[in-house]
Write a structure and sequence with these properties.
The protein is of the alpha+beta class and 303 residues long. It is 25% helix and 19% strand.
């Protein structure tokens, strides 16, 4: 058969010839790529599905050397990937929430520990206030003799008086008062802690809770005027300027009388603390009647 020249071929023959040539060329190139692993077959070229041009969906996709074309994923695989991504996001959010809760719990725990080890702010203990002034008793010439005079105590306050009477006596110390001298009326007597009926049998009693001599505050001292030595028998004779000397085991303190007053047994405000060092002397009054109190005030000399 005589080979036709290109100019003798019809358009359809030329087109078929070009397609055959392109198919051979593509096949050779595909074989070369397939041998080097640089090709993915997306469709099998068959006579029923020939590759006619570059836009055919069954064409072979060439990839650069060293790379591979990702395979298409099925809808099920896409759904699983998205589900796993959602689970991972929820897990991260959960870990963040757990972390925040942990730090909040630790902060609360630390605050509770700090609060538990902190010592409460010290509050000053209020001085126990007496219901009536000390040294109260019935006169020695009364029926039954001298006894604690409970009649001058309001009935509803008698349990409180009993409670105050049972306060423990402080442990002796070198700064406590041990002796009192009042030269103007010839007093020289021991001082004991406590001013109950039994303590005043032994001498001059210091109200428990009042300060030591020389300290700021009111040193309250009481004694009887007609029983147990009549130590404060002439307390009403003291005048402003008279000297009251109070001793401790360490030194002596000199107080100067500033005034005298006669009050009812319930005037306990005369025992109230004072800003400066003072002494208050208390005894029953008048002599052998004992229904009032005589109160002498003195201030520390050159405090």
């Amino acid at each position: 058969m005589t080979e036709k020249r290109p100019e003798d071929l019809s358009v359809e023959e030329l087109r078929r010839l070009l397609l055959d040539k392109r198919r051979v060329t593509r096949h050779d190139r595909l074989e070369r790529f397939r041998s080097t692993g640089r090709v993915i077959s997306l469709a099998i070229e068959t006579p029923e599905n020939p590759v006619t041009d570059e836009l055919d969906p069954g064409r072979v996709v060439e990839t650069p050397e060293g790379e591979s074309q990702p395979a298409l994923r099925s809808p099920r695989r896409v759904f699983l990937d998205r589900l796993l991504l959602g689970i991972e996001i929820l897990a991260v959010i959960g870990f963040i929430g757990i972390g925040l809760a942990f730090f909040g719990m630790m902060r609360t725990l630390n605050q509770e520990v700090v609060a538990s080890i902190q010592q409460p702010t010290a509050q000053a203990t209020a001085l126990i206030t007496a219901v009536v002034l000390p040294s109260g008793h019935t006169p020695p010439n009364a029926e039954g003799g001298a006894q604690p005079n409970e009649a001058e105590i309001p009935e509803h306050l008698r349990p409180l008086v009993q409670a105050i009477a049972n306060i423990p006596i402080p442990t002796p110390g070198p700064a406590q008062a041990i002796r009192i001298q009042i030269p103007a009326i010839g007093v020289d007597a021991p001082i004991v802690q406590g001013d109950g009926f039994e303590q005043l049998k032994k001498g001059v009693g210091q109200f428990i809770g009042s300060p030591n001599p020389g300290e700021n505050g009111n040193v309250v001292l009481s004694a009887h005027n007609d029983i147990f030595g009549e130590i404060f028998r002439e307390l009403d004779k003291l005048q402003p300027g008279d000297v009251v000397i109070v001793y401790t085991n360490q030194r002596q303190y000199t107080y100067i009388v500033t005034g005298t007053q006669v009050v009812e047994p319930t005037r306990v405000e005369v025992m109230a603390p004072t800003p400066n060092p003072t002494v208050t002397l208390i005894s029953c009054y008048p002599y052998l009647i004992d229904n009032q109190r005589i109160v002498v005030s003195a201030a520390l000399q050159n405090p």
